[in-house]
Amino acid sequence: MLPLPQMLSLRPLLKEVLIAELMLGFLLLANSCKCQSLVTNQPQLVTAMVGEDVVLPCHLEVAVNVDELVLEWGRLDLSPKFVNVWFEGSEYTDDLNMAYRGRTSLFTDRLRDGDVSLRLTGVRLSDNARFRCYYPKGNKEYFINLLVGK
């Protein structure tokens, strides 16, 4: 547990983050559409503390054939940029960024329904970044900003 002074110093930031998430959620609901794409291309903010596991949400609005699905999760500021790649029925582990090997996974039982969210385990301060969920078949990308606290 964090010392009280550190917890209190995070309180205003977490309040602002919560308000921003609620506003974004409202806007997403108000502007949802039934189109064959990712749910939105507005960046979403996700928060986590160091050491926690976190889910970075990403949903396709169409059901997909898991055996034909190609999906890339990455950070464009890294080289190599890939943190998780799903290629035609399985996770592709070559060319993944070393910092993410063994720390990312997809919910394989939900892919068929279009849920392509990423699970990131053991969050680190260095994970404080913008992540991209990319669906090459539809040339669609979705960004998630991960805010990491200590």
TrEMBL record:
A single GO BP: T cell receptor signaling pathway
Presence of keyword Chaperone: no
Origin: domain of life: Eukaryota
Subcellular location(s) per record: Membrane
Record flagged with keyword Glycoprotein: yes
InterPro entries given in the database record: Ig-like_dom_sf, Ig-like_fold, Ig_V-set, IgSF_BTN/MOG
TM region positions: none
One Pfam entry name: V-set
Protein name: Immunoglobulin V-set domain-containing protein
Native organism: Fundulus heteroclitus (Killifish)
